[in-house]
Write a structure and sequence with these properties.
- With about 120 residues, the protein is mostly helical.
- It has one domain: 434 Repressor (Amino-terminal Domain).
- It contains seven helices and two strands.
- Strands 1-2 form a two-stranded antiparallel ribbon.
- Strand 1 and strand 2 form a beta hairpin.
- Helix 4 packs across helix 5.
- The chain is flat and about 55 Å long.
- The protein starts with 6 loop residues before the first helix and ends with a helix.
Length: about 120
C-alpha cells in the first residue's frame, strides 16, 4: 500500500514534550466521560442499568441525554453501575472533597433552611 504508514511511524519523530502532552490529553479524555460513555465503557446495556435502577430503559436514555442532572440522581446511577460518586471542589491552592451533598433529601434541606433563617 503506497502512501500508507503505520501509526507508530507517524509518531516516532515526535519530541518527548509532544509525546508527554499527547499522553496527558489522552489521560484527560479518559477521565472525562458522559454517562452514556461511562455505561458503555463498563459494558452495561441501558436495559441492564434500567433494571438496577428500577426504571424503564427509555428513562435511562433520556437521563443520558440530559444537559443537567440532580446530584442525588447521579449518585444513584453511579452506584447502580458499581461505583461511588465523589464530589471534589478544586481551587488554585487546594482540593476539597464535599461530603453528604447527595444524601440530603428535600425534608432535610427544608429544615436546614428554616434553621438558617431563624439564626440570621
Amino acid at each position: 500500500m503506497t502512501g500508507h504508514k503505520p501509526f507508530s511511524g507517524l509518531v516516532k519523530d515526535f519530541s518527548p514534550q509532544r509525546k508527554t502532552r499527547i499522553a496527558q490529553l489522552t489521560h484527560q479524555l479518559r477521565q472525562e466521560m458522559t454517562l452514556q460513555e461511562l455505561r458503555q465503557a463498563l459494558e452495561l446495556h441501558q436495559i441492564e442499568l434500567s433494571a438496577r435502577l428500577g426504571i424503564k430503559q427509555a428513562a435511562v436514555s433520556r437521563m443520558e441525554n440530559r444537559k443537567d442532572i440532580h446530584v442525588s440522581q447521579l449518585k444513584k446511577v453511579i452506584e447502580a453501575m458499581g461505583g461511588e460518586l465523589v464530589i471534589t471542589a478544586r481551587f488554585p491552592h487546594m482540593e476539597v472533597c464535599i461530603h453528604h451533598v447527595a444524601l440530603q433529601n428535600n425534608d432535610t434541606t427544608q429544615k436546614s433552611n428554616e434553621i438558617d433563617r431563624r439564626t440570621h
